[in-house]
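Justification of computing resources. Each target in the renewal requires a structure prediction run like the one illustrated here; the chain below, 490 residues long, is used simply to show the kind of job we budget for.
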Amino acid sequence: MQDDDNISEVKIEDQKIIDNKELNIFEALVPVVILMGLLAYNIFFANGEMFGGYSNQYILLIGGFVAFIGGLLNKVSPLVMVKEVWENLKSVFIPIMILFLVGALAGTWLISGVIPAMVYYGLQVLSPEIFLPASVIIAAVISIATGSSWTTSATVGIALVGIGTALGINPGMIAGAVISGAYFGDKMSPLSDTTNLAPAMAGTDLFTHIRHMAFTTVPTITVTLIVFGIISTTIEPTGNADISNLLASIDKTFSITLWLFLVPAAVIGLILLKTKPLVALATGVILAAVFAVIFQPEVLQSLSDSSFYAIINSILTDTAVATDNEKLNDLFSSGGMEGMLWTIFLIVCAMVFGGIMDGIGALARITKALLSIASSVFGLFTSTVMSCLGLNVIASDQYLAIVIPGKMFKQAYEDKGLAPENLSRTLEDSGTVTSVLIPWNTCGAYQSGVLGVGVGEYFFYAIFNWLSPFTTLLFAAFRIKIRMLAGKTV
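Resulting C-alpha coordinates:
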Protein backbone atom coordinates (compact mmCIF):
# COMPACT_ATOMS: atom_id res chain seq x y z
CA MET A 1 0.00 0.00 0.00
CA GLN A 2 1.17 3.47 -0.86
CA ASP A 3 0.42 5.72 2.09
CA ASP A 4 -0.98 8.71 0.21
CA ASP A 5 -3.96 10.15 2.04
CA ASN A 6 -4.29 12.89 -0.60
CA ILE A 7 -5.33 10.30 -3.18
CA SER A 8 -8.92 9.60 -2.29
CA GLU A 9 -10.88 6.67 -3.62
CA VAL A 10 -13.32 9.07 -5.34
CA LYS A 11 -10.53 10.87 -7.12
CA ILE A 12 -8.98 7.62 -8.30
CA GLU A 13 -12.30 6.14 -9.35
CA ASP A 14 -13.18 9.27 -11.33
CA GLN A 15 -9.78 9.42 -13.01
CA LYS A 16 -10.10 9.82 -16.78
CA ILE A 17 -8.41 7.17 -18.88
CA ILE A 18 -7.10 8.74 -22.09
CA ASP A 19 -7.86 6.85 -25.29
CA ASN A 20 -6.16 7.89 -28.54
CA LYS A 21 -7.67 6.34 -31.66
CA GLU A 22 -4.74 7.64 -33.73
CA LEU A 23 -2.35 5.37 -31.81
CA ASN A 24 -2.04 1.70 -32.76
CA ILE A 25 -0.75 -1.08 -30.54
CA PHE A 26 2.66 -1.22 -32.20
CA GLU A 27 3.24 2.49 -31.66
CA ALA A 28 2.06 2.15 -28.06
CA LEU A 29 4.60 -0.61 -27.45
CA VAL A 30 7.63 1.14 -29.00
CA PRO A 31 8.54 3.11 -25.82
CA VAL A 32 8.03 -0.05 -23.74
CA VAL A 33 10.29 -2.14 -25.97
CA ILE A 34 13.00 0.52 -25.93
CA LEU A 35 12.69 0.89 -22.15
CA MET A 36 12.92 -2.85 -21.50
CA GLY A 37 15.76 -3.23 -24.02
CA LEU A 38 17.86 -0.51 -22.38
CA LEU A 39 17.13 -1.88 -18.91
CA ALA A 40 18.14 -5.38 -20.01
CA TYR A 41 21.35 -4.09 -21.59
CA ASN A 42 22.14 -2.09 -18.46
CA ILE A 43 21.64 -5.13 -16.22
CA PHE A 44 23.32 -7.84 -18.28
CA PHE A 45 26.06 -5.99 -20.14
CA ALA A 46 26.79 -2.74 -18.30
CA ASN A 47 26.59 -4.00 -14.70
CA GLY A 48 23.97 -1.36 -13.93
CA GLU A 49 26.38 1.47 -14.73
CA MET A 50 25.45 2.42 -18.32
CA PHE A 51 24.82 6.02 -17.23
CA GLY A 52 26.70 5.95 -13.96
CA GLY A 53 24.88 5.63 -10.65
CA TYR A 54 21.55 6.84 -12.04
CA SER A 55 21.18 4.49 -15.01
CA ASN A 56 17.59 3.39 -14.38
CA GLN A 57 16.50 6.99 -13.92
CA TYR A 58 18.00 8.13 -17.22
CA ILE A 59 16.61 5.10 -19.04
CA LEU A 60 13.11 5.96 -17.82
CA LEU A 61 13.57 9.51 -19.10
CA ILE A 62 14.74 8.19 -22.47
CA GLY A 63 11.63 5.99 -22.62
CA GLY A 64 9.52 9.02 -21.77
CA PHE A 65 11.17 11.06 -24.54
CA VAL A 66 10.45 8.30 -27.09
CA ALA A 67 6.82 8.22 -25.94
CA PHE A 68 6.66 12.03 -26.20
CA ILE A 69 7.87 11.91 -29.82
CA GLY A 70 5.33 9.16 -30.51
CA GLY A 71 2.61 11.37 -29.06
CA LEU A 72 3.57 14.31 -31.27
CA LEU A 73 3.50 12.07 -34.36
CA ASN A 74 -0.01 10.95 -33.35
CA LYS A 75 -1.43 14.46 -32.92
CA VAL A 76 -1.28 14.57 -29.12
CA SER A 77 -0.84 18.06 -27.72
CA PRO A 78 2.35 18.55 -25.68
CA LEU A 79 0.19 20.26 -23.06
CA VAL A 80 -1.86 17.09 -22.62
CA MET A 81 1.29 15.04 -22.01
CA VAL A 82 2.75 17.63 -19.64
CA LYS A 83 -0.54 17.76 -17.74
CA GLU A 84 -0.54 13.97 -17.23
CA VAL A 85 3.08 14.07 -16.05
CA TRP A 86 2.13 16.82 -13.60
CA GLU A 87 -0.83 14.79 -12.32
CA ASN A 88 1.48 11.82 -11.80
CA LEU A 89 4.03 13.92 -9.96
CA LYS A 90 1.33 15.39 -7.72
CA SER A 91 0.16 11.87 -6.87
CA VAL A 92 3.58 10.93 -5.47
CA PHE A 93 4.19 14.13 -3.50
CA ILE A 94 3.06 12.54 -0.21
CA PRO A 95 5.00 9.29 -0.83
CA ILE A 96 8.12 11.37 -1.49
CA MET A 97 7.59 13.24 1.78
CA ILE A 98 7.14 9.87 3.49
CA LEU A 99 10.44 8.68 2.03
CA PHE A 100 12.22 11.74 3.39
CA LEU A 101 10.68 11.11 6.81
CA VAL A 102 11.65 7.43 6.69
CA GLY A 103 15.24 8.52 6.07
CA ALA A 104 15.00 10.85 9.06
CA LEU A 105 13.35 8.07 11.07
CA ALA A 106 16.19 5.64 10.34
CA GLY A 107 18.79 8.20 11.44
CA THR A 108 17.07 9.25 14.66
CA TRP A 109 16.07 5.71 15.57
CA LEU A 110 19.74 4.78 15.24
CA ILE A 111 21.19 7.49 17.49
CA SER A 112 18.36 7.18 20.02
CA GLY A 113 19.10 3.47 20.44
CA VAL A 114 15.71 2.30 19.13
CA ILE A 115 17.14 0.20 16.30
CA PRO A 116 20.06 -1.09 18.42
CA ALA A 117 17.53 -2.08 21.13
CA MET A 118 15.41 -3.94 18.59
CA VAL A 119 18.51 -5.77 17.38
CA TYR A 120 19.69 -6.42 20.95
CA TYR A 121 16.46 -8.06 22.11
CA GLY A 122 15.75 -9.64 18.75
CA LEU A 123 19.06 -11.48 18.76
CA GLN A 124 18.07 -13.12 22.03
CA VAL A 125 14.60 -14.15 20.89
CA LEU A 126 14.83 -14.95 17.15
CA SER A 127 17.13 -17.81 16.23
CA PRO A 128 18.16 -18.55 12.61
CA GLU A 129 16.03 -21.73 12.63
CA ILE A 130 12.76 -19.77 12.95
CA PHE A 131 13.81 -16.31 11.84
CA LEU A 132 12.43 -16.21 8.28
CA PRO A 133 8.95 -17.68 9.00
CA ALA A 134 8.77 -15.51 12.12
CA SER A 135 9.60 -12.43 10.03
CA VAL A 136 6.73 -13.23 7.65
CA ILE A 137 4.28 -13.58 10.56
CA ILE A 138 5.48 -10.47 12.41
CA ALA A 139 5.26 -8.34 9.26
CA ALA A 140 1.83 -9.77 8.43
CA VAL A 141 0.41 -8.99 11.88
CA ILE A 142 1.71 -5.39 11.85
CA SER A 143 0.48 -4.85 8.29
CA ILE A 144 -3.01 -6.18 9.02
CA ALA A 145 -3.21 -3.94 12.07
CA THR A 146 -2.01 -0.79 10.29
CA GLY A 147 -3.24 -1.54 6.77
CA SER A 148 0.13 -0.42 5.46
CA SER A 149 3.03 -2.40 4.00
CA TRP A 150 4.98 0.87 3.93
CA THR A 151 4.66 1.50 7.66
CA THR A 152 5.49 -2.13 8.37
CA SER A 153 8.76 -1.93 6.43
CA ALA A 154 9.70 1.41 7.97
CA THR A 155 9.30 0.07 11.50
CA VAL A 156 9.65 -3.67 12.14
CA GLY A 157 11.07 -4.28 8.64
CA ILE A 158 14.18 -2.22 9.30
CA ALA A 159 14.64 -3.94 12.66
CA LEU A 160 14.22 -7.44 11.21
CA VAL A 161 16.79 -6.76 8.48
CA GLY A 162 19.19 -5.58 11.17
CA ILE A 163 18.62 -8.61 13.39
CA GLY A 164 18.83 -11.10 10.54
CA THR A 165 21.98 -9.51 9.15
CA ALA A 166 23.61 -9.80 12.58
CA LEU A 167 22.66 -13.48 12.60
CA GLY A 168 24.43 -13.93 9.26
CA ILE A 169 21.26 -14.41 7.17
CA ASN A 170 21.17 -13.21 3.55
CA PRO A 171 19.55 -9.72 3.52
CA GLY A 172 17.65 -10.66 0.35
CA MET A 173 15.97 -13.52 2.21
CA ILE A 174 15.05 -11.26 5.11
CA ALA A 175 13.64 -8.53 2.89
CA GLY A 176 11.69 -11.12 0.90
CA ALA A 177 10.16 -12.51 4.10
CA VAL A 178 9.27 -9.03 5.40
CA ILE A 179 7.73 -8.00 2.07
CA SER A 180 5.79 -11.25 1.76
CA GLY A 181 4.24 -10.78 5.19
CA ALA A 182 3.70 -7.06 4.76
CA TYR A 183 1.83 -7.44 1.46
CA PHE A 184 -0.27 -10.31 2.79
CA GLY A 185 -1.39 -8.04 5.61
CA ASP A 186 -1.86 -5.11 3.25
CA LYS A 187 -4.16 -7.19 1.02
CA MET A 188 -6.25 -8.58 3.84
CA SER A 189 -6.59 -5.45 5.98
CA PRO A 190 -9.81 -3.41 5.67
CA LEU A 191 -7.68 -0.36 6.51
CA SER A 192 -5.60 -0.67 3.32
CA ASP A 193 -6.31 1.79 0.51
CA THR A 194 -5.72 -0.74 -2.26
CA THR A 195 -8.03 -3.22 -0.50
CA ASN A 196 -10.71 -0.54 -0.59
CA LEU A 197 -9.88 0.60 -4.11
CA ALA A 198 -10.08 -2.81 -5.85
CA PRO A 199 -13.71 -3.58 -4.90
CA ALA A 200 -14.69 0.03 -5.65
CA MET A 201 -13.37 -0.36 -9.20
CA ALA A 202 -14.92 -3.82 -9.69
CA GLY A 203 -18.31 -2.96 -8.22
CA THR A 204 -18.44 -5.05 -5.06
CA ASP A 205 -18.22 -4.28 -1.34
CA LEU A 206 -15.14 -4.37 0.86
CA PHE A 207 -15.85 -7.42 3.02
CA THR A 208 -17.18 -9.54 0.14
CA HIS A 209 -13.90 -8.73 -1.60
CA ILE A 210 -11.77 -9.70 1.42
CA ARG A 211 -13.66 -12.97 1.95
CA HIS A 212 -13.33 -13.93 -1.72
CA MET A 213 -9.67 -12.91 -1.79
CA ALA A 214 -8.92 -15.19 1.17
CA PHE A 215 -9.48 -18.24 -1.08
CA THR A 216 -6.32 -17.45 -3.06
CA THR A 217 -4.39 -15.45 -0.48
CA VAL A 218 -4.40 -17.92 2.42
CA PRO A 219 -3.01 -20.86 0.35
CA THR A 220 -0.34 -18.54 -1.09
CA ILE A 221 0.87 -17.32 2.30
CA THR A 222 0.78 -20.91 3.58
CA VAL A 223 3.08 -22.04 0.77
CA THR A 224 5.29 -19.02 1.47
CA LEU A 225 5.66 -19.99 5.14
CA ILE A 226 6.44 -23.60 4.24
CA VAL A 227 9.12 -22.55 1.75
CA PHE A 228 10.72 -20.17 4.25
CA GLY A 229 10.61 -22.93 6.83
CA ILE A 230 12.51 -25.21 4.44
CA ILE A 231 14.98 -22.45 3.57
CA SER A 232 15.62 -21.92 7.28
CA THR A 233 16.87 -25.49 7.62
CA THR A 234 19.59 -24.74 5.06
CA ILE A 235 20.87 -21.57 6.70
CA GLU A 236 24.32 -21.72 8.18
CA PRO A 237 23.99 -19.83 11.47
CA THR A 238 27.28 -17.93 11.06
CA GLY A 239 26.12 -15.29 13.51
CA ASN A 240 25.33 -17.65 16.39
CA ALA A 241 28.86 -17.96 17.75
CA ASP A 242 29.24 -14.19 17.74
CA ILE A 243 25.92 -13.33 19.39
CA SER A 244 27.38 -12.86 22.86
CA ASN A 245 30.03 -10.54 21.43
CA LEU A 246 27.41 -8.63 19.46
CA LEU A 247 25.24 -8.19 22.54
CA ALA A 248 28.22 -6.99 24.56
CA SER A 249 29.20 -4.49 21.88
CA ILE A 250 25.68 -3.09 21.62
CA ASP A 251 25.37 -2.84 25.40
CA LYS A 252 28.74 -1.10 25.62
CA THR A 253 27.90 1.49 22.95
CA PHE A 254 24.24 2.24 23.69
CA SER A 255 22.07 2.51 26.77
CA ILE A 256 19.65 -0.34 26.09
CA THR A 257 16.26 -0.22 27.80
CA LEU A 258 12.72 -1.36 27.06
CA TRP A 259 11.60 2.27 27.34
CA LEU A 260 13.00 2.82 23.85
CA PHE A 261 10.19 0.69 22.41
CA LEU A 262 7.77 3.47 23.27
CA VAL A 263 8.91 5.23 20.07
CA PRO A 264 7.88 2.53 17.53
CA ALA A 265 4.82 1.73 19.66
CA ALA A 266 3.73 5.38 19.39
CA VAL A 267 4.14 5.36 15.60
CA ILE A 268 2.15 2.13 15.17
CA GLY A 269 -0.46 3.40 17.65
CA LEU A 270 -0.94 6.61 15.66
CA ILE A 271 -1.37 4.61 12.44
CA LEU A 272 -3.99 2.43 14.16
CA LEU A 273 -5.80 5.60 15.17
CA LYS A 274 -5.85 6.54 11.45
CA THR A 275 -3.46 9.44 11.90
CA LYS A 276 -1.97 10.65 8.62
CA PRO A 277 1.30 8.79 7.85
CA LEU A 278 3.25 12.05 7.64
CA VAL A 279 2.13 13.01 11.14
CA ALA A 280 2.82 9.54 12.56
CA LEU A 281 6.32 9.33 11.07
CA ALA A 282 7.18 12.91 12.03
CA THR A 283 6.11 12.09 15.58
CA GLY A 284 8.45 9.09 15.48
CA VAL A 285 11.33 11.33 14.44
CA ILE A 286 10.65 13.92 17.17
CA LEU A 287 10.21 11.30 19.91
CA ALA A 288 13.42 9.55 18.84
CA ALA A 289 15.31 12.86 18.99
CA VAL A 290 14.03 13.44 22.55
CA PHE A 291 14.92 9.87 23.55
CA ALA A 292 18.40 10.32 22.09
CA VAL A 293 19.02 13.26 24.41
CA ILE A 294 17.64 11.34 27.41
CA PHE A 295 19.14 7.89 26.87
CA GLN A 296 22.14 8.30 24.52
CA PRO A 297 24.10 11.44 25.53
CA GLU A 298 27.43 9.63 25.04
CA VAL A 299 26.48 8.55 21.53
CA LEU A 300 25.52 12.12 20.64
CA GLN A 301 28.77 13.39 22.11
CA SER A 302 30.76 10.92 20.00
CA LEU A 303 29.06 12.23 16.85
CA SER A 304 29.36 15.98 17.52
CA ASP A 305 30.25 18.52 20.17
CA SER A 306 26.62 19.63 20.05
CA SER A 307 23.74 17.22 20.66
CA PHE A 308 21.53 19.44 18.51
CA TYR A 309 23.87 19.18 15.52
CA ALA A 310 24.25 15.42 16.02
CA ILE A 311 20.47 15.02 15.82
CA ILE A 312 20.11 17.34 12.81
CA ASN A 313 22.89 15.47 10.99
CA SER A 314 21.18 12.14 11.68
CA ILE A 315 18.00 13.51 10.12
CA LEU A 316 19.59 15.06 7.05
CA THR A 317 22.71 13.13 6.12
CA ASP A 318 25.01 10.15 6.75
CA THR A 319 25.35 8.99 10.34
CA ALA A 320 27.44 6.11 11.63
CA VAL A 321 27.83 4.99 15.24
CA ALA A 322 31.15 3.26 15.77
CA THR A 323 31.35 0.11 17.91
CA ASP A 324 34.14 -2.39 18.59
CA ASN A 325 32.47 -4.91 16.25
CA GLU A 326 32.92 -4.50 12.49
CA LYS A 327 29.63 -6.24 11.70
CA LEU A 328 27.75 -3.75 13.86
CA ASN A 329 29.58 -0.81 12.31
CA ASP A 330 28.09 -1.73 8.94
CA LEU A 331 24.68 -2.18 10.53
CA PHE A 332 24.57 0.96 12.67
CA SER A 333 24.77 3.49 9.86
CA SER A 334 22.12 5.56 8.13
CA GLY A 335 21.92 7.88 5.15
CA GLY A 336 19.18 10.10 6.59
CA MET A 337 17.07 12.11 4.15
CA GLU A 338 20.03 12.38 1.79
CA GLY A 339 20.11 8.60 1.50
CA MET A 340 16.61 8.65 0.01
CA LEU A 341 17.45 10.99 -2.90
CA TRP A 342 18.35 8.16 -5.32
CA THR A 343 15.01 6.45 -4.67
CA ILE A 344 13.08 9.70 -4.96
CA PHE A 345 14.74 10.55 -8.29
CA LEU A 346 13.82 7.09 -9.54
CA ILE A 347 10.16 7.61 -8.60
CA VAL A 348 10.07 11.04 -10.26
CA CYS A 349 11.52 9.64 -13.51
CA ALA A 350 9.07 6.72 -13.43
CA MET A 351 6.18 9.14 -13.04
CA VAL A 352 7.42 11.14 -16.04
CA PHE A 353 7.50 8.00 -18.20
CA GLY A 354 4.14 6.75 -16.93
CA GLY A 355 2.52 10.16 -17.30
CA ILE A 356 3.56 10.54 -20.94
CA MET A 357 2.46 6.97 -21.72
CA ASP A 358 -0.93 7.75 -20.19
CA GLY A 359 -1.11 11.12 -21.95
CA ILE A 360 -0.60 9.66 -25.43
CA GLY A 361 -3.19 6.94 -24.77
CA ALA A 362 -0.66 4.07 -24.78
CA LEU A 363 -1.79 2.59 -21.46
CA ALA A 364 -5.41 2.34 -22.60
CA ARG A 365 -4.38 0.97 -26.00
CA ILE A 366 -2.23 -1.81 -24.49
CA THR A 367 -4.97 -2.76 -22.01
CA LYS A 368 -7.59 -2.85 -24.78
CA ALA A 369 -5.35 -5.12 -26.83
CA LEU A 370 -5.14 -7.55 -23.91
CA LEU A 371 -8.91 -7.38 -23.42
CA SER A 372 -9.54 -8.17 -27.08
CA ILE A 373 -7.83 -11.58 -26.83
CA ALA A 374 -9.92 -12.67 -23.82
CA SER A 375 -12.36 -15.05 -25.51
CA SER A 376 -12.78 -17.50 -22.60
CA VAL A 377 -13.18 -17.16 -18.85
CA PHE A 378 -9.59 -18.25 -18.28
CA GLY A 379 -8.47 -15.90 -21.05
CA LEU A 380 -10.26 -13.04 -19.30
CA PHE A 381 -8.47 -13.75 -16.01
CA THR A 382 -5.15 -14.09 -17.85
CA SER A 383 -5.67 -10.79 -19.68
CA THR A 384 -6.47 -9.08 -16.38
CA VAL A 385 -3.31 -10.43 -14.76
CA MET A 386 -1.15 -9.46 -17.73
CA SER A 387 -2.70 -6.00 -17.81
CA CYS A 388 -1.97 -5.43 -14.11
CA LEU A 389 1.60 -6.69 -14.45
CA GLY A 390 2.19 -4.63 -17.56
CA LEU A 391 0.87 -1.44 -16.00
CA ASN A 392 3.04 -1.94 -12.92
CA VAL A 393 6.00 -2.02 -15.31
CA ILE A 394 4.87 0.75 -17.65
CA ALA A 395 2.95 3.16 -15.43
CA SER A 396 5.21 2.48 -12.41
CA ASP A 397 2.28 2.89 -10.04
CA GLN A 398 0.12 0.25 -8.35
CA TYR A 399 -2.92 2.52 -8.28
CA LEU A 400 -3.02 2.73 -12.08
CA ALA A 401 -2.42 -1.04 -12.21
CA ILE A 402 -5.73 -1.39 -10.35
CA VAL A 403 -7.73 1.51 -11.78
CA ILE A 404 -7.19 1.04 -15.52
CA PRO A 405 -7.81 -2.76 -15.70
CA GLY A 406 -10.67 -2.34 -13.23
CA LYS A 407 -12.44 0.09 -15.53
CA MET A 408 -11.54 -1.71 -18.75
CA PHE A 409 -12.46 -5.25 -17.65
CA LYS A 410 -15.51 -4.59 -15.46
CA GLN A 411 -18.05 -4.98 -18.26
CA ALA A 412 -16.28 -8.03 -19.71
CA TYR A 413 -16.61 -9.90 -16.40
CA GLU A 414 -20.27 -9.00 -16.21
CA ASP A 415 -20.85 -10.13 -19.81
CA LYS A 416 -19.45 -13.56 -18.93
CA GLY A 417 -21.70 -13.82 -15.86
CA LEU A 418 -18.82 -13.43 -13.40
CA ALA A 419 -19.43 -11.77 -10.04
CA PRO A 420 -17.44 -8.54 -9.54
CA GLU A 421 -15.44 -9.98 -6.64
CA ASN A 422 -13.63 -12.18 -9.16
CA LEU A 423 -12.27 -9.05 -10.81
CA SER A 424 -11.44 -7.27 -7.53
CA ARG A 425 -9.56 -10.35 -6.29
CA THR A 426 -7.58 -10.63 -9.51
CA LEU A 427 -6.71 -6.93 -9.41
CA GLU A 428 -5.17 -7.37 -5.97
CA ASP A 429 -3.55 -10.74 -6.69
CA SER A 430 -1.72 -9.30 -9.68
CA GLY A 431 -1.72 -5.51 -9.30
CA THR A 432 -1.12 -4.76 -5.62
CA VAL A 433 1.44 -7.41 -4.77
CA THR A 434 3.63 -7.34 -7.89
CA SER A 435 4.27 -3.58 -7.71
CA VAL A 436 7.08 -4.22 -5.23
CA LEU A 437 8.87 -6.49 -7.74
CA ILE A 438 9.50 -3.65 -10.21
CA PRO A 439 12.60 -1.57 -9.29
CA TRP A 440 11.26 1.68 -10.75
CA ASN A 441 7.69 1.24 -9.51
CA THR A 442 6.92 3.51 -6.56
CA CYS A 443 6.51 0.46 -4.30
CA GLY A 444 9.66 -1.32 -5.47
CA ALA A 445 11.71 1.86 -5.14
CA TYR A 446 10.29 2.54 -1.67
CA GLN A 447 10.85 -0.94 -0.25
CA SER A 448 14.39 -1.27 -1.59
CA GLY A 449 15.24 2.22 -0.33
CA VAL A 450 13.81 1.66 3.15
CA LEU A 451 15.09 -1.87 3.71
CA GLY A 452 18.44 -1.19 2.05
CA VAL A 453 18.10 -4.28 -0.15
CA GLY A 454 17.85 -4.09 -3.94
CA VAL A 455 14.81 -5.49 -5.75
CA GLY A 456 17.07 -7.92 -7.58
CA GLU A 457 18.31 -9.24 -4.23
CA TYR A 458 14.88 -9.87 -2.71
CA PHE A 459 12.86 -10.64 -5.88
CA PHE A 460 13.14 -14.45 -5.66
CA TYR A 461 12.50 -14.43 -1.90
CA ALA A 462 9.38 -12.25 -2.11
CA ILE A 463 7.59 -15.56 -2.61
CA PHE A 464 4.10 -14.39 -1.71
CA ASN A 465 4.29 -11.54 -4.20
CA TRP A 466 5.29 -13.42 -7.35
CA LEU A 467 3.31 -16.55 -6.42
CA SER A 468 -0.01 -14.68 -6.04
CA PRO A 469 -0.67 -14.15 -9.79
CA PHE A 470 0.03 -17.82 -10.47
CA THR A 471 -2.39 -18.82 -7.70
CA THR A 472 -5.20 -16.69 -9.07
CA LEU A 473 -4.64 -18.13 -12.58
CA LEU A 474 -4.57 -21.68 -11.17
CA PHE A 475 -7.93 -21.09 -9.51
CA ALA A 476 -9.29 -19.67 -12.77
CA ALA A 477 -7.98 -22.57 -14.87
CA PHE A 478 -9.65 -25.18 -12.67
CA ARG A 479 -12.73 -23.04 -11.91
CA ILE A 480 -12.00 -23.10 -8.17
CA LYS A 481 -14.02 -20.57 -6.16
CA ILE A 482 -15.09 -18.65 -9.25
CA ARG A 483 -18.28 -16.93 -8.18
CA MET A 484 -21.02 -16.36 -10.76
CA LEU A 485 -23.75 -13.74 -10.88
CA ALA A 486 -27.19 -14.88 -9.76
CA GLY A 487 -28.78 -17.10 -12.39
CA LYS A 488 -25.48 -17.63 -14.25
CA THR A 489 -23.38 -20.80 -14.47
CA VAL A 490 -19.73 -21.38 -15.26
